[in-house]
Fold:
Amino acid sequence: MKDFFNLAFNNLRHRGIRSWLTLLGIFIGVMAVVSLISLGTGLQTAVGAQFGISNTELITVQAGGLSSAGPPGTGVTNKLTWDDAEAIERLSTVKAAIPRMMPMGKLEYNDILGFGMAVSIPDGERRKLTHEIMDIEATEGRMLKDGDTNKIVLGWNFYASDDLFGEAIVPGKTVLIQDEKFIVAGILKKKGSFIFDNMVLMNEDVVADLFDYGEDADLIGVIVKDKDLMERAKEDIEKLMRKRRDVDKGKEDFEVSTPDAMLDTVNSVLGGVQAFIVIIASISILVGAVGIVNTMTTSVLERRREIGIMKAIGARNSQIFMQFLIESGLLGFVGGLIGCVLGVLIGIIGVLGINSWIGADVAPSVDFVLVGGALVGSFLIGAVAGIVPAMNAAKQNPVEALRG
Amino acid sequence: MVKEVSKELIRLRNVSKFYHMGNSVVKALNGVNFKVYNGEFVAIMGPSGSGKSTAMNLVGSLDVPTKGSIYLDEVDISTLSESELAQIRGKKIGFIFQSFNLIANLTTAENVMLPMMFQGEDINERRATAKKLLSLVDLGDRLDHYPGELSGGQRQRVAIARSLANDPEVILADEPTGNLDTKSGGNVMEFLEKMNKQGKTIIMVTHDPDLAEKYADVVYWLRDGILEKVTKRVGKRFVDVTKKTKRKVKGKGGK
Structure:
C-alpha cells in the first residue's frame, strides 16, 4: 500500500499545471468551509463577548423582555421592583437576586457633553459578588466602596481613547453626570465589549437618587445556587413572576433569560450564515470533484503506454486500479491541504480583524478536528472521483496499451 | 559455462490469433506450433506483418490466442484469468522492448524495482536487487538517474536489468537493438548472450536474419502468420529442421 502511495506521489510531482488547475474547486470549497468555521468560532465568541455573555451561572430577569427595543427597562410601564428581587431570592434554587439599574444619562467632561450608561453596583457583600459575576476589576485606581456617594468608576474606553472627550479621563478627574459632580475613582480593565467598556459604575443608592428610580429596577441579576439548577431556577422564577405580575403563561410581560439561551440566539444567526456558505462550498467541491474525474480520465488516456508497461512487467488489474485511485485521492488531498492552509490563515486574519474592528479580544483558534476532517474528506472525494478512471486504467488491454 | 538444454519450457500448439478489422478477419497467426526448451536462445524471425509481434505477445502472456493452447511450464495460459496472467508474467517472463519502455517519472533503480513491487517484495530487498542488477549491466553508478538522462544503449541495459528483476525463466526481447546504433546494439546483445550463458532462456523477435543467426540456437521463420521454416545451429551452420521439407540453409556468421 505504501508503495502505491509513493508511486502515486511520484506521478503527481510530474503533473503539469493543468492537473493542478482542476483542483481549484476543491481548494476553494475547502478554504471556504475551513475559514468560515474558524471565523464562525471567532465571530461567536466575539458577538458573545460583545453582549457580555461570559458568565454561565447568571440568569437575567427583565421587564418587557429581550425583544423590546432599547436598553433594559426602557419603555416599560410595569417595571421590576426591589420587592421582586427579594421574592426571587427566597426561592430555594436561588443564591442571590440583585436588582440592577442601568439608566442612560448625560456625562460632561472637558466641556464636552456625551451620553452613557450608568450601571448600579450594590453595597455590602453583594458588591464583591457583582464584581465577580460581571468579571470586572480596576486596572487604574480602585473599584467603588460603600459610601462612595460622589465617586464613579469608568469603563476602559473613557481612559483608552481621547476621541470621546478630547482627552483621556484618568482617576482623580472630576466629571459631571446629570449635572452633578463625580470624581473618577478607577478605570475598568478592558473587556472587549462595547457595553462593558463604555459604562459608568455608580453605587446603587446614588443611581437610584440621581435617576429617580425609587423602588424600581431595570433588571434583576439572579445567581443560582448550582449550575445544574439553571433550568429549574428559570422555571421557578417564571412561575413566581407570573404570579406577582398576574399574567398567564404565554403572555409574560417579562423575560427570564439564561446565558445559554442568549448564546443560542447568537448561534442560530451565525449558523444560518454558515449553512449558506457550506452549501456554496459544497457546490464548489462538487465542481472540483468533476475536475478530478476529468483530469484523471485524461491522465489514463495519456498514460496508456505506461499502463501497458506496468501490466507487461506483472501489474495486476487491481494494482493498476489502486495506483490510479490513490493518485486521484492524493490529488484531492493536495487541494484540501491548500484549502486548509489558506482557510486557517483567513480564519486567523479574520479573527484578528474582528478584534481590531470592534475592540474585542478573541484568541484566533484552529480547529484541528475540522482540518483533519477536511483533509480526510478531500482525499475521499478525490478517490471517489477517481474510481471510474481507475477502472478504465485497470481494464486496458496490455497489447493495445503498449502500442500507446 | 556449458548450456544445458533440457526441459520443455514453452509450447505453442496449433496457435492462431485472428483480429477483426471491420468486416474482414486478419489472421495474424494461423496454426503455429513450436517448443522452446529451457536455456535456449530462440529467435523469431520475419518481416513486418509476419505475425512475429503477435507471437511474442502470446508467448509473453500479454494476449490470449483465438485458437490453440500455449503452455508455459506445463500450465495452459490460454485458460488463465487476466490477474493470473499478470502474476505469471511478472514472475516468469522478463520483457525487453524495442523502444525500451521505461517509465520516465521513475529513476533507473525505481524502474528496476517496479516488477518486484508488483510481486509484493520487501522494499529493502527490492533496492538491493535493483542495485545488483544495475551493476550487472554496468550501470551501478546510474541508480538515481532518470531514463531521460541516459543514452539509448544505457536505457536498454536498464530494461535488461528490469527484465531480470524477478529472476524469470524467460526473457522476451522484441527487436532489442531496433532503436540502437550498431555499437550499443552489439553491447546490448552481449549482455543478452551473457544472460543466456548463465542459463536464462531468451526469445528474441527480430526482422534481421543476421542478428538472429549470430546469436540464436534456433530460428523460427514466420511469414504471413504461418511458420515457414525452423533452422537450428549445428556447429557453425544453420540447418533447416522443418518437419515437412528438410533442406539445408547456409549458416551465416556463427561464433
